[in-house]
């Protein structure tokens, strides 16, 4: 991740104004880029960070909802963080997964069914170190949010 774009994004990602400015724009741009590129191009493409498209079932509406998320891979699972850009409330997609853990992801253009699991205890602590290396802003988000940020393992199912 040592390229100029990655360095700039890493520094900006820790700033509150960046989160505030981009939380309303970046997901829409990423969703669009991901769909038109077949899941190969996102805002952070070229930074060494990877984005997937997670599709959950809305816990209130029952409608399919798709959101782009940074992820890390660990033991065959995709690890995603419910940071919600450091806001006080959990993101809707995380609440949807808590209500219905069966969902799907599109990773590099390949769709897969998954089952979500919240990581806890030592496993969460171990993975937190991995995800904060991927996106150092997660530490800032956790501090700003004043809540426990859920970390999910999205485990592929047959």
From TrEMBL:
Pfam families this protein is in?
Answer: F420H2_quin_red
Catalyzed chemical reaction(s): oxidized coenzyme F420-(gamma-L-Glu)(n) + a quinol + H(+) = reduced coenzyme F420-(gamma-L-Glu)(n) + a quinone
- The name of this protein is Nitroreductase family deazaflavin-dependent oxidoreductase
Which family is this protein grouped under? Belongs to the F420H(2)-dependent quinone reductase family.
User: Lineage of the native species?
Assistant: Bacteria, Bacillati, Actinomycetota, Actinomycetes, Catenulisporales
Organism of derivation:
Catenulispora yoronensis
């Amino acid at each position: 991740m040592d390229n100029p774009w990655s360095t700039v994004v890493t520094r900006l990602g820790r700033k509150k104004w960046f989160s505030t400015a981009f939380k309303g724009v970046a997901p829409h741009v990423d969703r669009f880029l991901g769909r038109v590129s077949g899941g190969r191009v996102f805002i952070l493409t070229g930074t060494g960070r990877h984005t997937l498209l997670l599709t959950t079932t809305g816990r209130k509406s029952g409608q399919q909802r798709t959101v782009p998320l940074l992820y890390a891979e660990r033991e065959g699972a995709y690890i995603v963080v419910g940071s919600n850009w450091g806001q006080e409330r959990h993101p809707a997609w995380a609440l949807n997964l808590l209500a219905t853990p069966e969902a799907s992801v599109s990773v590099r253009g390949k769709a897969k069914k998954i089952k979500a699991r919240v990581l806890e205890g030592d496993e969460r602590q171990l993975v937190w170190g991995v995800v904060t290396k991927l996106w150092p802003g997660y530490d800032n988000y956790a501090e700003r949010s004043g809540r426990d940020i859920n970390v999910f393992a999205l485990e592929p199912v047959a």
